[in-house]
Design a protein that fits this description.
By secondary structure, the chain is α/β, with parallel strands linked by helices. It is built from 10 helices and 13 strands.
């Protein structure tokens, strides 16, 4: 069986697609896997902040379109890049075992950052949480692939990067501070991979189901339901982290009232059996707490 995987061209995206290809080959079904590299608008315009693009999807739409056109059979994404709603004709068929969901600093560590030091990150979620830890910090935007981000660490400052991205590229030694999930609630889906295929491809859906990690899927489903309840493409700083251990599922969500420094930031943790209902309930609680209902 010949399978074509649509993926972005960045080194991290290629690692992710290759990892899924290896999982599929490991099933022993005689799959021959090829990568179909796709340019996305987010990659073509690295000078534009993600917020100015109008929200999520800038790294996935062209990759999804390749599958819908039949140019590829499946697509591999970072789950954090996916909008909360899947396009008609596609299905989120598999979430393999999740990587580390945490955030890290590269450059100076938190304890070594001088008063007023600059931290580079394009994420409002990261900014509001760092500002709550260190109100003296300044921030600047950060875009590009991982190598570019490491090159753009401000002098005397730091940049925030996902731990999973660094470990997958063998760059663990660049991390100077790793935040626990209580200090820095991660982005929805961070550390997880999302594999999509056409909804009517029953054979491939069954195959992709065989490489799914059940607990990782429950976590991602809960986090994506949280984001969907906030409006699908929430412009406010928001994050969520679910943990599924032996069938017990908990979710911590974060929401800030605005992107303005000093804005009210709320966290809420709850447990439940249904990932979707759990995500929705945490989102509703936080929306009421910060007054954005």
């Amino acid at each position: 069986m010949r399978l074509r995987i649509a993926t972005r061209r960045s080194p991290l995206a290629l690692w992710q697609a290759t990892h899924v290809a290896q999982l599929l080959v490991g099933l022993g079904v005689g799959a021959e896997v090829h990568l179909v590299e796709v340019d996305t608008v987010g990659d073509r315009r690295p000078e534009v902040s993600i917020a100015d693009f109008g929200g999520k999807g800038v790294f996935v739409k062209e990759v999804q379109a390749a599958v819908l056109r039949g140019d590829a059979d499946l697509a591999v994404h970072s789950a954090k890049d996916l909008p909360s709603l899947t396009p008609d004709g596609l299905v989120l068929a598999s979430v393999p075992q999740r990587g580390d969901p945490r955030d890290a600093l590269v450059g100076r560590s938190m304890t070594d950052l001088a008063v007023g030091a600059t931290v580079a990150t394009g994420s409002q979620r990261r900014r509001v949480q760092l500002a709550a830890i260190r109100g003296d910090l300044e921030f600047c935007d950060l875009r590009g692939n991982i190598a570019t981000r490491l090159e753009k660490v401000p002098v005397g400052g730091a940049a925030v990067v996902a731990v999973a991205a660094l470990t997958r590229l063998g760059l663990e030694d660049t991390m100077t501070t790793v935040f626990n999930v209580d200090e820095m609630v991660p982005q929805v889906g961070q550390g997880a991979l999302a594999v999509e295929c056409r909804a009517d491809d029953a054979v491939l859906r069954e195959m992709l189901g065989a490489i799914e990690h059940a607990e990782s899927r429950r976590e991602v489903d809960a986090e994506r339901a949280f984001l969907a309840e906030l409006g699908g493409d929430c412009r406010l700083p928001a994050g969520a982290h679910a943990q599924s251990v032996s069938g017990a599922l908990t979710l911590t969500g974060l929401l800030a009232a605005s992107v303005v420094r000093g804005a009210r930031v709320e966290r809420h943790t709850a447990a439940g059996d249904d990932p979707v209902e759990l995500g929705r309930s945490v989102a509703r609680h936080l929306s009421g707490a910060v007054g954005v209902l």
